[in-house]
Specification:
By secondary structure, the protein is an all-alpha fold. The chain has two domains: 102 residues; 222 residues, Orthogonal Bundle (MetI-like fold), CATH 1.10.3720. 72% of the residues lie in helices and 0% in strands. The chain has 14 helices and no strands. It starts with 15 loop residues before the first helix and ends in a 10-residue tail after the last helix.
Length: 373
C-alpha cells in the first residue's frame, strides 16, 4: 500500500473577519444613504417653509422696488430726466437686482437648484447678514459661528453625561436615603427648558449680585493675553452651561439610577457578590456595562433635544453661535442663512444617529454592527 498522504481537497474557508468587514461596510452604506435621504427631505421642507411657498419672493421684490425707486428719486442726476426715462431706469435697475438674487427664475427651478447647492454647502451670499470680518458668504458666516455652538453644547453635555453617571451610580448605593429622595423630588425641574433657568440665573448672578456677565462669549474688548482670554471665556460659560445642566441633570440622574437599581438585583450580580468580588468590580462589570446602551440612547435623545433648542438658549445669553445666527436670520428673512444653519444642524443630528450604533457595539459585545439578528 502507498504511504503517500492524500491532498486535502476541501475548499478553504473564507476568514470570518472578511465577512464581518463586508457586513459592516454594507450596513454603513445603507445607513448613510438612509440618513442622507432624510437630510434631503428635511432641507427641502426647510427651503419651502423659509420661502413661505414664494411669499418671501414677493416681499423681496417689494423691498427691491421701494429701495431702487427711493434711491433713483433722491439722485440729483435723475431729476432732469423725463418720467418715461426715469421709469425705464427704475425698471432696468430692478430687473438687474432681481436677476442678481435669482428672482427671475421660477420658484420650483430655483428651489431644486438651491437644494443641490445647499447639500454641498455651496450656499452663496447672505441677503442681510455678514460675518464679523464683513464677508456676506453664508459658508463663512456659519463656519464662524459653529465653533461657539460646539463649545457651549459640548461642554454642557460632557459634564452632564459623566456627572449623571457618577451621581446615579452613587445614588443606587444609597437607595431610600435623603439624597435619593431629594433627586426624585427635583427630577420634575427638567420639564422646563434651559433658557427658562437661564433667565433666572442672569437675574440672580448678573443683575443682582453682579458677579457674572449677562451674556456674550468673552469680555469686550477681548483680552489680548491667551490666559486672560481663557479665563474670560470660562467666566462667560458658567451661566449658560449651568442653565443647560439644571434643565436635564436631575431627570438623567433619576432615570439612570433606576436602571442601575434594576440591574443590581439580577441573579448574576447576587452570584458575583456571593463569590466575594469587590463592589467596584461588580459595579463596573455587571451593573454599569449592561446599562450603557440604554444610557447612551437616553443621552443621544437629550443631545438631539439640546441641538434643536440651541437657538433660544444662545439668544438669551447673547452667545455668538449658530443658534443665535439662525434666530437673527429668521427675523431678517435671510433665506440662505436659515437654510445653511438648518443644514448644519441636520448634518450634526445625522452624525449623532449614525455614530450611535457603533458606540453600541463598543460598549456592548452582544451588539454586532449590521447584524440582522
Amino acid at each position: 500500500m502507498s504511504s503517500e498522504t492524500q491532498p486535502d481537497l476541501k475548499t478553504p474557508k473564507r476568514p470570518a473577519s472578511s465577512g464581518t468587514v463586508t457586513r459592516i461596510l454594507r450596513y454603513t452604506a445603507v445607513r448613510l444613504v438612509t440618513l442622507f435621504v432624510t437630510v434631503v427631505v428635511g432641507v427641502y421642507l426647510t427651503i419651502m417653509i423659509a420661502n413661505m411657498g414664494g411669499y418671501v419672493d414677493q416681499i423681496m421684490r417689494s423691498e427691491i422696488r421701494e429701495r431702487v425707486t427711493m434711491k433713483i428719486g433722491a439722485n440729483p442726476a435723475t431729476r432732469n430726466m423725463t418720467p418715461e426715462a426715469r421709469k425705464k431706469m427704475v425698471d432696468d435697475t430692478i430687473a438687474l437686482e432681481e436677476k442678481r438674487l435669482g428672482l427671475d427664475t421660477p420658484v420650483a427651478v430655483r428651489t431644486a437648484r438651491y437644494l443641490a447647492n445647499a447639500l454641498v454647502l455651496n450656499l452663496g451670499r447672505a441677503q442681510n447678514m455678514s460675518s464679523d470680518s464683513g464677508s456676506r458668504t453664508v459658508r463663512l458666516i456659519i463656519l464662524e459661528r459653529l465653533p461657539a455652538t460646539l463649545l457651549l453644547l459640548g461642554t454642557a453635555e460632557l459634564i452632564a453625561f459623566f456627572a449623571s453617571i457618577f451621581l446615579a451610580l452613587s445614588l443606587s448605593r444609597l437607595y431610600g436615603s435623603f439624597w435619593d429622595k431629594l433627586v426624585i423630588a427635583l427630577s420634575p425641574t427638567s420639564a422646563a427648558p434651559g433658557w427658562f433657568y437661564g433667565i433666572f440665573l442672569i437675574l440672580i448672578f448678573a443683575a443682582i449680585f453682579k458677579i457674572l456677565p449677562f451674556g456674550g462669549m468673552v469680555d469686550a474688548p477681548p483680552p489680548d493675553n491667551k490666559i486672560e482670554y481663557a479665563i474670560s471665556l470660562l467666566k462667560h460659560l458658567i451661566l449658560p452651561v449651568s442653565a443647560l445642566l439644571i434643565s436635564q441633570i436631575f431627570i438623567s440622574i433619576y432615570s439612570w439610577r433606576t436602571f442601575f437599581l434594576i440591574y443590581s438585583s439580577e441573579d448574576y450580580v447576587e452570584m458575583a457578590k456571593a463569590k466575594g468580588l469587590p463592589s467596584r468590580d461588580i459595579e463596573q462589570r455587571y451593573i454599569l456595562r449592561p446599562t450603557l446602551p440604554t444610557i447612551i440612547t437616553n443621552f443621544a435623545l437629550l443631545l438631539i433635544g439640546v441641538w434643536t433648542g440651541a437657538t433660544i438658549i444662545e439668544t438669551v445669553f447673547q452667545w455668538p453661535g449658530l443658534g443665535r445666527t439662525l434666530f437673527t436670520a429668521i427675523g431678517l428673512y435671510d433665506t440662505p442663512v436659515i437654510v445653511g444653519s438648518t443644514i448644519i444642524y441636520a448634518y450634526l443630528l445625522a452624525i449623532t444617529v449614525f455614530l450611535l450604533d457603533f458606540v453600541y457595539a463598543l460598549v456592548d459585545p452582544r451588539v454586532k454592527v449590521g447584524s440582522g439578528n
